[in-house]
């Protein structure tokens, strides 16, 4: 198992254990569940934002025992009569439903 420390700037921290072949997406989902926040941005100690969920932890440069900062993001919603969209400021995707 691979261990990564994820903390909020406030100091609240969780040590997460993942299989070594995990992806950034796997790490982000585990961090969201462990920290109780639905929308997080993960940042390395070097200031690199982990933005590609398909990257392996190794490809993203994450090492055993790495310390990451979690930044909570507020989701935004826009709607019409037949559709709506959800996104986070600074994010790289929009999720939309409807016509």
How would you describe this protein?
The protein is mainly beta. It contains one helix and seven strands. The protein has one helix spanning 24-35, and strands spanning 2-7, 13-18, 40-44, 67-72, 75-79, 83-88, 94-98. The protein has a four-stranded mixed sheet, covered by helices on one side. Strands 5-6-7 form a three-stranded antiparallel sheet, with no helix packed on it. The protein is elongated and about 50 Å long. The chain starts with a strand and ends with a strand.
How many strands? 7
Largest sheet: 4 strands, mixed
What is the average per-residue confidence, as pLDDT, rounded to a whole number?
89
**How many H/I helices?**
1
Strand content: 35-45%
Report how far apart the termini are: 44 Å
Give me the secondary-structure category.
Answer: mainly beta
Oligomer: single chain
What helical percentage do the residues reach? 10-25%
General form? elongated
Low-confidence stretches: none
User: Radius of gyration over alpha carbons?
Assistant: 15 Å
Helix-strand sequence: EEHEEEEE
Strand order of the largest sheet: 2-1-4-3
Write the layout of secondary structure elements.
Layout: E1 2-7, E2 13-18, H1 24-35, E3 40-44, E4 67-72, E5 75-79, E6 83-88, E7 94-98
Describe the structure concisely.
This protein is 12% helix and 39% strand.
